Automatic annotation (TrEMBL):
UniProt-recorded name of the protein: Histidine kinase
Enzyme Commission identifier(s): 2.7.13.3
Keywords: Coiled coil, Kinase, Transferase, Two-component regulatory system
SMART domains noted in UniProt: GAF, HATPase_c
GO MF entries: phosphorelay sensor kinase activity; protein dimerization activity
Source organism: Candidatus Promineifilum breve
Top EC class for this record: transferase
Length: 417
């Protein structure tokens, strides 16, 4: 199904330039919510419309997924029958429509007034164009005005051209979100596989060793060949403590809700409190500005961390995973008695230091490169726009630094309140 409406030869040059700008603006983002908002803003400016809406299928109905203008707050999320009114006709036929009291290019159509009761906005002139993906309508772009001459038949080709750009932008954003979902699902599967390996390699072996030792000692004691000794109980206790520590880590990693609910700093604070401190390790979370001055927080403790400005979800997730891996290494392998996570906030970038006082390793990270997750940590830092470095020695502890991570300049409009 092809859109048969063409731009008239008399279309002014400034309108052509405006449509070119429209295409550049709406296709310059891959975030669907942002794309929809840009479409609404640009169509409003392009046609001087009083109301603009994007409707997309919702079962058998059409749903207002994005609305701007008078009464918009009452329409967002509402649905109307998919076979009703101008937008229903456009969705079913793929034909663009103009409508005002003087006439229409589609006989028998009228404005669906029932929905206007919700918006309290009375349209006298209306334009609607299909959002086409190939030859299939995936939605409708609609513009409305309260005056009969507010939108004219000459405006319809402009809306059609805008709808073609809008359909491309929406399709690209939807594909990007689908790809992101697939990547997240793959990452989740890989994380589950990693946890399963750690459960098998660490906890299972410890529990098996405890079972074998306890069984052998019981048989020897029953046969009168062994007298219970304190060191036997101590050995079992050490194995049990090791297994408990591993299980606590795995359980905590399976409960990442703190990151979504409390943000990066809140999640780090809770992690240090729930894992390191409960394991008897002195743990601190320090937040400073670039010069090392303590960052002003609204209150003490975890509440301060929760109140801190949220970063983008992708950035919070990536940084948290790096810190989590570094802390896991310190708890499980270094024998550290103290750890500290130091967050430095610059004007547009941030850095993280994860320090421990445990057994370090040679500066060449090859021996620990794969088994300790350093390769994946470096890759995460690179994907976030920064880099990761390691300072360590066999007797001097370890510092893992993540530096030059952009968090303001590129993410301002995505930061959450």
């Amino acid at each position: 199904m092809e859109n048969q409406i063409e731009l008239p030869a008399t279309l002014q040059r400034r309108t052509i330039l405006a449509l070119n700008k429209f295409g550049q603006v709406v296709t310059s983002s891959l975030k669907l919510e942002d794309v929809l908002a840009r479409i609404l803003d640009e169509v409003t400016a392009l046609l001087n419309a009083e109301g603009v809406a994007i409707l997309m299928p919702d079962g058998d109905d059409l749903k207002f997924v994005a609305v701007c203008g008078e009464g918009a707050a009452h329409l967002k999320g509402r649905t109307m029958p998919g076979d009703s009114g101008v937008v229903g006709h456009v969705m079913q036929t793929g034909e663009a429509v103009w409508l005002n009291p003087q006439g229409s290019n589609a006989a028998g159509l009228s404005i669906y007034r029932i929905i206007e009761r919700a918006s309290e906005f009375h349209s006298e002139s209306l334009l609607a164009a299909p959002l086409l993906q190939g030859d299939r309508p995936i939605g409708v772009l609609e513009a409305a005005h309260s005056r009969a001459d507010g939108l004219t038949p000459d405006d319809l080709p402009v809306l059609v051209a805008a709808a073609n750009w809008a359909a491309i932008a929406i399709s690209n954003a939807q594909l990007h979100e689908q790809a992101q979902t697939l990547r997240e699902q793959q990452a989740l599967l890989e994380e589950r596989a990693r946890l399963a390996r750690e459960l098998h390699d660490a906890v299972t072996q410890s529990l098996y060793s405890m079972s074998v030792l306890a069984g052998a000692w019981r048989r020897q004691i029953e046969a009168g060949q062994l007298q219970p000794q304190p060191e036997h109980i101590a050995e079992l206790g050490q194995l049990a403590q090791f297994a408990l520590r591993e299980v606590r880590l795995l359980i905590y990693e399976l409960r990442p809700t703190e990151l979504e609910e409390e943000g990066l700093l809140g999640a780090l604070y809770r992690r240090l409190e729930a894992v390191e401190q409960r394991a008897g390790i002195s743990a601190r979370l320090i937040v400073t500005d670039e010069a090392g001055r303590p960052y002003p927080l609204p209150s003490d403790g975890r509440a301060a961390m929760v109140d801190f400005d949220r970063l983008t979800p992708a950035l919070e997730h990536g940084l948290y995973r790096i810190v989590q891996e570094a802390l896991n290494n310190a708890v499980k392998h270094s024998g550290a008695t103290a750890v500290a996570v130091h967050v430095r906030l610059g004007g547009s970038t941030l850095s993280l230091d994860i320090e421990d006082n445990g057994r370090g390793f040679e500066a060449d990270p090859t021996p620990r490169g794969s088994g300790f997750g350093l390769t994946s940590m470096k890759e995460r830092a690179r994907q976030l726009g920064g880099y990761l470095s390691i300072v360590s020695s066999p007797s001097g502890g370890t510092t893992i630094r993540v530096a030059d991570i952009p968090y303001r300049a590129s993410a301002t409009e995505e930061k959450q309140p």
